[in-house]
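Let us practice reading a record.
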Amino acid sequence: MTAQEGPLVLAIDAGGTAVKVVLFDADGRAVAQRHADVTTVHHPDGRVERDPEAFWEATARAIRAVVCGVAPGRLLAAGCTGFGNGIFMVDAAGRPTRPGIVSVDHRAQPIVDALEAEGRLDEISALNGHRPWGGQTLLQLVGLARDEPEVMARSAWGLACKDFIRLRLTGEMQTDPTDASGGGLMDLGRGSYSTPVLEAFGHPELRAKLPPIVGSAAAGVRVSAEAAAQTGLPVGLPVAGGMMDVAACALGAGVTTHDRLVMIAGTWAINGMEVDGASAAPAPILNMIYRDGATRLVAEGSPSSAANLGWYLDRALAGRLTVSEAVARIEDCPVQARRCHFLPYVHGPRPRRGAFVGLGSTDDEASMLRAICEGVAFQHRRHAEQILPHGTGAWPAAIRLTGGAARSPAWAQIFADVCGRPVEVIAADEVGALGAGICAAVAGGLYPGLTQATRAMSRIARTHAPDPARHAFYAGRYDDFLRLDRGMMELIATMR
């Protein structure tokens, strides 16, 4: 059977700024793809929202463009992933009752601050295994119940981003274990929604608005006639349960054992790894039931990764350099030399703010670009060290790097040298979409389970070994980075 005749699966990855739609073959190779930009509104007061109808229409157009011309019978199933947390409220007919809330919206942070002031953070963590934070689905739902009761009265369901897309594809309200648990809504030990955590906030009625949980590789729902007309997909095509984007990236990166750690270097710096059973204290920001209950995936993160470079190129350099040109320039700055530091908090998390620190007369464009790339890698190392205690406490054998930073060999090498571990870069450009495609491959019967599908569809494109001398040099700069961050936080506290 030729590549033009073999089976295909469709993957939909709904991110914070765009929707990626990719057709994968049985070996995990992308044979067609299309990106659709979607408008995300950043309000001055910090709310971040998306028009659900425009979001779906852009997604439907991208799907139609990708599947146009695919021979009947080749497409076996579809799978979805999307940003975790945030919430899309819909009525009983599936119509949006308000704009969707995006995960970087922290309107619910005052609820977290009140919990901290009352000394109740550990109480909530004990109920759902997570550290509460302002963008968490649980907190968003509680905030809406308090601030928009009329909207909640009209709303029948609260859906994750990818589950809203699955609703439009199939007409069914469902979620999967990664979004349900990663949103702080589940009792991880029992594997079901946690009514006690909703009761702790005084809103047990929210339980009725949480959709049924199905397996990530489950194929119980199918493309409806209405969606087929909008997208060009065949009526009755199986649609997998899918995964939150963090879990989908881990799966696409081949993280199905405890000896690999995934680093997702995009807008957010997200590090995740598999662990067994209950996690250590303090609770992580994400604690998910992963691979349909086979294991847990714990993760730490903050909006402090590769998007800092995009900000610098767009706002400081006014688009004069492309990302590839900018990263190539870091080679003009020797590694073991004095230069400034960069704190990669242009996008938060508050109260942190981005900063160049220690600028000197020898600093130039190349040294500042290297400092940005290093600052991002330092923040990923920090988050890795936060999650290691949830496993054995030791670094895994290697790091699987995904996201924008992975596309640059020079930047990937910085990650290897900073962390002192080999960095393996996945062959796929869209690793999160590949994770959704792996779920679809199982739902479509191409493979018997997620582990087998991952082994067949995820592969390493290149490996970067750490340089011992550079690692020793970066150890000192990493310590300086942590001290500078602490000092800046103390300074900010005096400026409030």
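A brief commentary: The chain has a mean pLDDT of 94.
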